Automatic annotation (TrEMBL):
Annotated localization: Cell inner membrane
Keywords: Cell inner membrane, Cell membrane, Membrane, Transmembrane, Transmembrane helix
This protein's name: Paraquat-inducible protein A
Superkingdom of this protein's organism: Bacteria
Primary subcellular site in the record, as a coarse category: membrane
Pfam families tied to this protein: PqiA
Membrane-crossing residue ranges in chain numbering: 48-72, 92-121, 142-164, 170-191
Taxon lineage: Bacteria, Pseudomonadati, Pseudomonadota, Gammaproteobacteria, Pseudomonadales
A cellular component term, taken from the record's GO annotations: plasma membrane
Amino acid sequence: MRAADAGLMVCHECHQLNRADAGQRHQRCVRCGARVHMRRPNSIVRTWALLITAALLYLPANLLPIMTVRMLGSGTPDTIMSGVVTLAKHGMFPIAAVVFIASILVPTFKLVGIAMLLFSVQRHHPMSPRQRILVFRFIEWIGRWSMLDIFVIAILVAIVNFGSLASVEAGFGAVAFASVVILTMLAAITFDPRLIWDNTESGNKHD
């Protein structure tokens, strides 16, 4: 039995369980006073909006230069992929692998994973609740690694600043990439995981 079937709602602020009151249209948490809902309002619509925006920014994030390293006044802008190739050419395969996984694979997995969850919940795709929750937990787990490139660039820009001798400049690709990371993080937060259980045999659909 689901909590919804028992008339229970969880507060997203303090995680207090609240019993649903049919006589109240807008119910508040008994502990902290925050608004509580049986399901987050418009969770699917909001998550789709964030996900589509992130997908649109994913192209410039990979096509535009993310960083330019200048030595003695000259330097070539690097995209994420060209940076990986450069690292590999210089024999730094472990670093190249970390950058490739954190900057290419992780955002791709998050975009595809969230889209799979939305499609599965909204269209009643034949995925078991266990499979859905595993995908959701995996998305939450890998999200912490998404900002690796941005942290590295921020540190390099702050530290490597020797005028005409050497400098590091962030490119527009870094802004697009940071936007993709933030939007996918917000999409994962906006998605209500309780929807995973709503279109099982014992559940009902809630958008």
